[in-house]
Design goal:
17 helices; globular
Length: 512
Amino acid sequence: MTRRSHRRRRTAETVRQLPWQAVRNNWSPVEVLSEDEVEAIVDAALKILQTQGFKFLDDESRRIVEAAGAEPANETGMTRFDRNLVIERIASIPESFSLRARNPAHDLQMGGNSICFAAVGGPAFVSDLDKGRRPGTHEEMCDFLRIVQSLNIIHQEGGGCFEPMDLPPQSRHLDLYFAQLTLLDKNAQGYPLGRDRTVDCLEMNAIALGISREDLASNTTVLAIVNTNSPMQLDVPMSEAVFELSAANQVTCITPFTLAGSMSPATLAGTLAQQTAEVLAVATLSQSIRAGAPIMYGAFASNVDMQSGAPALGTPEYSKMTLASAQIARRLGMPFRSSNTTTSNCADAQSAYESQMSLWGAILGHANLVNHAAGWLEGGLTASFEKLIIDAEMLQMLTETLKPIAINDEELALDAIAEVPPGGHHFGTAHTLERYETAFYTPILSTRQNFESWTESGASGTAKRANTIWKQLLAEYQKPPIDPATEDALCDFVERRKREINKTRIIPCDLH
């Protein structure tokens, strides 16, 4: 098999951005609920599971929770849980965990005050200013991953930025995993649609790390989003993923899709109670498979537009439920996941202000994982190259905002204040000259030109500037080092599995 380097020529001036860094939130979390109100929601969730129950469509999942002490499914297929069983099982969930990356410098911490930003994952379409909205291709997916690797503020790839529609659906997850593990050296989420896709992810991550499949259990690496089928149901593919992830001691991020007025009650309190019940049911399944397997409480609670029935995201309701969900997760002792969301159809002002609403809810609530943190459009149907850059700017600004203000003699600058008389300026003082390059945040996207200079340089709006930047990052991309033997082993695995799955033509893993 031939290899292509895909090394690109560097431009004269690289894109300026913040360095890779772990982000910590040392602010006190904003709490929109009292302790009594949090307890009322948790109590309601336990009451739902004890009186109404939860429906597992997978026979094996029902057997596992019944063996753990849940009631046998009734005639409607609902499995009821005694509240003490749920409380006992979730007690084994770790409050924090680490995630390995191929590059140890990019390992992640989940829990406590840590915040990780994950790129968009799962859309059906891709868009940019040049070609508009369209079904994505494998090569475009790889280019999106190259930009994710190049953006230091993004800690994790989100489990497939969009579907590569030019590849067979039965095996395209293998091409995704291969791209994740060779084009990136960051941690990447799994694609947990059923047992086979989940197992392939585990096997390939073990190969990439140079460890055995058994050793993966002591090297937590894979995090995957498991969505319940709200209201109160888990389908077979997601159940199979929970089993494989938990048995391998990998991370199940349980995320109900509760839209108030549609898949949950038309009240925030009722939606929070149902969401918590769904998380607890699946968490009980996971801990019955392997006590101590890492779990995240995932929240995607928002509302529908009551005029159209369409999802409404980046709303005040979304932000409030993010803050409340974070409190509930802390009460239950679970790391917490939220998202950056918008229903805007393009990279415009709406996409930015709805995303800011979502992001501030996540930051102020102390989310540990901000999923879809960069690149999400159209309620999650589309991944946007321009929105990827716009969101990166917002994430950088939030990261800088979280940094504490240093208070010491040098920072108080009393000598510099004394040096400048009334009516003077600080541009030329020694204090300023020592700091002028690093004193303040430098944007990746925003312009600070005056109107005349901005007009003379083309009067480019935000989306157009973002278009230029992602193309520049793509031109500057350098594939992170990987042992050729490891890459060959990954390629061999992919081609063997494709023969087993497709039994037809092979799409060679030749994207280097």
